[in-house]
Amino acid sequence: xxxxxxxxxxxxxxxxxxxxxxxxxxxxxxxxxxxxxxxxxxxxxxxxxxxxxxxxxxxxxxxxxxxxxxxxxxxxxxxxxxxxxxxxxxxxxxxxxxxxxxxxxxxxxxxxxxxxxxxxxxxxxxxxxxxxxxxxxxxxxxxxxxxxxxxxxxxxxxxxxxxxxxxxxxxxxxxxxxxxxxxxxxxxxxxxxxxxxxxxxxxxxxxxxxxxxxxxxxxxxxxxxxxxxxxxxxxxxxxxxxx
Length: 243
Fold this sequence. Notes:
243 residues; mainly beta; Porin; 8-stranded antiparallel β-barrel
C-alpha cells in the first residue's frame, strides 16, 4: 500500500471524526437552549378586579316628583264626598347604612323631604284645598348586587303633615294633621366610584282615613285619604367601614 493512499485514508478518517464532534456539539447546544427556554419565567398573572363593595354608612340628597290623589268625605251634619289630585315636587336628604354578604345587600334608611304637593276641590257641597308641606320615611332595604349595580326593595313607615281648608253649607274648618302610615317601593342604584353612587326609586304611600275637620252643628266630620306615588333620583356618598 502506497504511502499516498495511507495519507488519504488518515485524512478522511480525521474529517469524519471532526464532523461527528461538530454534530454532537450542535445537538448539545440546541438541547441547552431548549432547556433554558423552558426555564424562562412565565408572565405574571393579571390581577382580577375586586368586586364592588356596598358596605358602609351613607349620606345623600334626593329630588323628584309626587303624584297624589285625595278622597274626602263629609258625614254627620252634611253628607258629601269629593276627590282631588295633589301633584308636586319633593326634595330632601337621606341617611342610611348597608351590610353586604355575597350578593345580598341589606340595611336601613331614613329620609326627610320638603314637598310642594297641593290641590283644590271643585266647587260643590264639599269644597276646599289641601297641602302636604313635608314627609319623612324610615325603611328597611333588601337587594341584590351585580357588582356596581344594586336592585332593591324597601318597606317601612312614613309620617307627614296634611294641611286642609274645607267648606260645607253649615260652615268651614282649617286643620293641620300629622299622620303616620306605611310605605313601600323599589329602586336601582349604580356605583359611580368606590364611594359615590346614583339611584332612582319609586315609593307608594297610603295614609288610610285621617280625620281632617269637624264643622258646624250638627257636626259634619271630614275624613281624608291620601295616596301618593313618589319618583325620586338621588346621590349617596358612602363611608366604607371594615365589617
